Amino acid sequence: MSYVLLTDSQVNPRPEVQAIIPKSPRKGRRRSVGTKTGDVEDDTLLSHKMETTAHLFEILSSRSDIDHPICAECTEVLVEGLQKRLATASKERDAYVEYLKEANNDIPTEEERQQAQNDLAILHEREQKAFQELEKLEAEKVAMDEELSALQAEARRLDIEEEAFWQERNAFTTTFSSFQNTRDSLSVQLSHVSQQLEALQRTNVYNDTFCIGHDGNFGTINGLRLGRLSHLPVEWSEINAAWGQALLLLAVVAEKLDYEFQGYVLHPLGSASTIDKLEYPQQTSTNDPTHPAKPKVSHFDLYCAGDLPLGLGFLHRRFDGAMVAFLD
């Protein structure tokens, strides 16, 4: 005996069928049942049937969303829905029958069963061999896992050593790079200082500081004319500045050569430079050597205040004496 399992779609009515079936009042149209006067048994039987029918309608109404009895139109709609469900169920039944036929056709014969058993035995034998091979491979895998673990431990140790090596190498590279940078910096500094030294050795400070030349009939120092003519008057401020530069040059050269002038003291003061002439008295036997006599100081101005009128040329004597002292 076979059974067919029906889903809810075949048992319960479809939603569209329920939606189009209106609810009817509990009390529908019933056929009027006439009674025969005097027939008590028929009346009792008819009443019993009516009660039974009413009870069945109540049971149907309680188990569905449709109140029974229903009208003719609702009955037609319900019958149409049931016919559709019947058609669907018939299609499913036909599908099951077709499937059952195919299943019966696929039942193997005795020879096919024997061949299948032989194939199964061969497969069992192959399975045993494969299982043994698997056990062997698993044993080899265990050995390889142990070897792999040892190699991994060795690899970790080598990684640690490599990391230490690279750290040491990086530190050495950093130190070496610092040394190279210091060396390059010192080399650049040495080259620069050497170039500066060579330039300074070729440079004459006195030539740059005191440029001596000439401008026509006049000698010049730093572009200042030293002298004047009647037809080429030169400002006394320029001449005084030129004498100041000349006296400064003389004082600088004497200091550079560590030379001390005898009887003269130079005072380079630019345009107001002066020269002091020292005159010591003659030594006598009466002089105290512990208290030498003070020299006589003559002050000469190496500058001129300007042109003087005729008859006052004696006022240039100090300027003339300063020029004579400069030449001495």
Automatic annotation (TrEMBL):
One of its GO terms (biological process) is mitophagy. Residues 69-197 form the Atg6/beclin coiled-coil domain. Keywords: Coiled coil. GO terms for molecular function: phosphatidylinositol 3-kinase binding; protein-macromolecule adaptor activity. The keyword Ion transport does not apply. Residues 120-203 form a coiled coil. Residues 200-328 form the Atg6 BARA domain. GO terms for cellular component: phagophore assembly site; phosphatidylinositol 3-kinase complex, class III, type I; phosphatidylinositol 3-kinase complex, class III, type II. Gene3D superfamilies: 6.10.250.3110, Autophagy protein 6/Beclin 1 (1.10.418.40). Belongs to the beclin family. This is Uncharacterized protein.
